[in-house]
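tool=predict chain=A
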Amino acid sequence: MPDDRQIVIDELVTEWLRRANADLNLAELIDDERISPEILAYHAQQATEKALKSLLVKRQVEFPFTHVIGILLNLCQDAGLKINEIVAESFSLTRYAVATRYPGETEPVTRQEAREAARLARIVMTWVENQIK
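tool=predict ok
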């Protein structure tokens, strides 16, 4: 029977994954012209960030308040997880965390870039869910 601490951890993991999946669902609305590619890419980054944080919670690894995917991947690796090449590519999603949400900060995101961001986020989500099982 799980102890109270394990129950709290499992509940936190579930909540992180719920929110990650909600972001991923939005990121995958690529064909909805009402949603700008910048917003789609932002949600792909958020899905990836939250998925990785759910895995770190599950492994009971503390993590800083950060949007930098590379830091989270390094923490996963330090925790003994094998990061495959395609999951490692998700570090590139960090650029969508803040700057792309505001006009004039960076180049506009194309719909193809948003599509690729969503694809990477889906790969990370699947990888995380497999690690948690």
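The domain at 4-132 is CATH 1.20.120.330 (Four Helix Bundle (Hemerythrin (Met), subunit A)). The radius of gyration is 15 Å.
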